[in-house]
UniProtKB/TrEMBL annotation:
Encoding gene per record: cobT
Pathway annotation: Nucleoside biosynthesis; alpha-ribazole biosynthesis; alpha-ribazole from 5,6-dimethylbenzimidazole: step 1/2
Organism listed in the record: Pelomonas candidula
Protein's UniProt name: Nicotinate-nucleotide--dimethylbenzimidazole phosphoribosyltransferase
Domain of life: Bacteria
Function statement: Catalyzes the synthesis of alpha-ribazole-5'-phosphate from nicotinate mononucleotide (NAMN) and 5,6-dimethylbenzimidazole (DMB).
């Protein structure tokens, strides 16, 4: 992807100036590999020659899904509020990683089927979506509200980097449905094991998701598709991605589900992808293919299949490292090192 060509980031000459600076650092040409591309992307996102990251915000968007009552997950629906509590208490993987990396952690309840947890941000639309296998997961009004909630949340958060996380039993199903509708690939190529379904479980998930696609076939515009196939957390996250990109914040994408939110945001507001750094390729089967379709090359490939923002947090240190190299490495000229002929 050529980031400088995207309208959201158009900044005449900046890409060439930053590339020139990178190429004159004291190293063989191109020797910092994809860290160089990352530094360039961060510069283009911020529209400056010396990008700098401050007060990174990891937001976990949480919600329940009507589909989780249809046996599409290996785990029960109650796990969503239980994990929200665990995240707030500091015991979830994302809590540990956010703490360790110095990332501010916000849990945004976009529609968990339980009372609002102490310490969660209240962006609740309803206690879980409707069952998308029998009709739209949410109304158009609810989808619009979720988008606006996500935008407003970013306005309230400090800093210039947003790391995406999510929690919602059944949400790989919503992500798979969105992938099918947004890419046009066959459903079977868009569905994975989620939390660990066996082959019979995947067959059941495929059958249920096939029903959801059939019953919601009339949805055409991106917002209609979002409402039909749902995920309050996914639609809210898409709103946050749109607002963050508009403010030139760096968006760090986690796994399969956050990719669904970003792809939805791109469908709603073409160009936002340019603000996105893809942290990792998830072990969720269809993720690699979707990344490829989006022209995204993720930083890490660790066989993660957790979500929560865990992969985004793990990849995070590469971003300040790229900024530091761009800002602080000497050039051949300043260090008196002989460049190649
Ligand atoms: C204990 C536990 C912690 C999690 N943390 C994230 N997820 C992940 O698994 C869910 C998606 O998979 P599926 O569509 O198969 O339900 C999401 O909540 C996602 O964040 C978890 C799942 C479980 C069980
Ligand atoms: O890639 C992800 O985000 C993912 C995969 C499986 C389960 N939960 C999340």
């Amino acid at each position: 992807m050529n980031f400088s060509e995207l309208p959201v980031l158009a900044e005449p000459g900046l890409a060439a100036r930053v590339q020139h600076a990178i190429d004159h650092k004291t190293k063989p040409l191109g020797a910092l590999g994809r860290v160089e591309a990352l530094a360039l992307q961060l510069a283009l996102i911020q529209g400056v020659e010396r990008p700098a990251l401050r007060e990174p915000q990891l937001v976990v968007f949480a919600a329940d899904h009507g589909l989780s009552r249809r046996g599409v997950s290996a785990y029960p629906r109650e796990v969503t509020p239980q994990m929200v509590a665990n995240m707030l208490a500091g015991g979830a993987a994302v809590s540990v990683l956010a703490r360790q990396q110095g990332l501010a952690l916000t849990i945004a309840d976009c529609g968990v089927d339980a009372p609002l947890a102490d310490g969660a941000v209240d962006l609740r639309i309803a206690p879980g979506t409707a069952d998308a296998s029998i009709g739209p997961a949410m109304t158009g009004e609810q989808a619009g509200r979720a988008l606006r909630n996500g935008m407003a949340l970013v306005e309230r958060l400090p800093g210039n980097a947003l790391l995406l996380g999510e929690m919602g039993i059944g949400n790989t199903s919503s992500a798979s449905l969105l992938m099918q509708r947004l890419t046009g690939l066959p459903l079977v190529d868009c569905v994975g094991r989620g939390t660990g379904l066996d082959d019979a479980g995947v067959a059941r998930k495929l059958a249920v998701l096939g029903e959801a696609l059939a019953v919601n076939a009339g949805a055409q515009a991106p917002l209609q598709i979002a409402a039909a196939l749902g995920g309050f957390e996914i639609v809210t996250m898409a709103g946050s991605v749109i607002a963050a990109a508009a403010q030139r914040r760096v968006v760090v994408v986690d796994g399969f589900i956050t990719t669904a939110a970003v792809a939805l945001a791109e469908a709603l507001r073409p160009g936002v992808l340019a603000a996105c750094v893809f942290a990792h390729c998830s072990a969720e089967g269809p993720h690699a293919r979707w990344l490829q379709q989006l022209g995204a090359r993720p930083l890490l490939d660790l066989d993660l299949r957790l979500g929560e923002g865990s992969g985004a947090a793990l990849a995070w240190p590469l971003l300040p490292a790229a900024c530091a190299l761009l800002a602080d490495m000497a050039s051949f000229e300043s260090a008196g090192v002989s460049n190649r002929d």
